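Write out the 3D structure for:
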Amino acid sequence: LISQVERLATLNAAGTAGRDAWQRAVDGVIKAIKLGLEASKEDDSDVLVTPDLVRELYLYVAAWQREHLEDLVGAEKSLTAALEHEPHCVPALMQLEELQRESGREAALVSTLRRLAEYADQGEVARDSAELRREAKVLAETVLEDPAMVDAILREMLEANDGDEWALSELTRVCEDQGTKEEVYALLMRQLETVVDPEQQSELRHRAAAVAADDLGDHVGALELYEQALDDDPEDQVAADALRKLYPKLGRYEDMLRFIERLVDQSSDSEVRVPLFIESAQICIEKLEAPSEAIEHLNAALLEDPGHADAVVGLLRLLESEGRDDERADVLMQKI
């Protein structure tokens, strides 16, 4: 039947009424589809119109509308009708995608790309679902300016592949814009599980730690992240500066001493090492009530710089308070 309709329309198309012939063919088939669907609903009807048949007829109609009538709007309606009867009709979706690439059809195109990506996930479309959704996300963000749609598309990407680094990074940025700090932290931690580049890992740890400390009040979590960062890179100054503040804030003074000792070991410069020894001594005196250990740190400072006034005064005062008169006398003799 379809072949006969096409043959007749083609024959008539040679004349001046060619366009009308194809339009009559389109109208006739659409009318036949509707009549067939209505008739098949009746209980005593011998007419059986299957979804597959309806889909195929609408695909023929859409092709005629595009090729012979240049009726792109009508073709899109026919393809949409085909999908209503057979939602998994990939050829119809592919043709819709092509039609909707016209300027001004971005909202419809985004919807079609998302459907194609869903079927690609199921193996029904030989396309990369991540690329389809990435294009949809860019259109939703730059053309449609729809943050909610951007968010939804990125979550679809992560549902399909929870290790998608690009989607994780983009969703983190979206959540930062939305101010959802708990989710930002969770997403940064997820990225840490997938990223292997050391520089990226360091940046992510810094960001996650900053969110934990500044936005969530989780100073312990922040401290652990900075410690990991410093373990990975002993020269990480951002982590070192942060730990200097976090250890005292949390009352972790013994950890602070170990941290300072680490800084001492990393430097061979007396101008760096001596203030660190004195800082350790102050912690031992003021926070840990460990005068003997404080004396050791001050002695270490004087080995580096025998004339350091603060170290000398502090050591003499401690030795006196501890009743270590012989040692105090030795120090005084060395300085005379």
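The radius of gyration is 37 Å.
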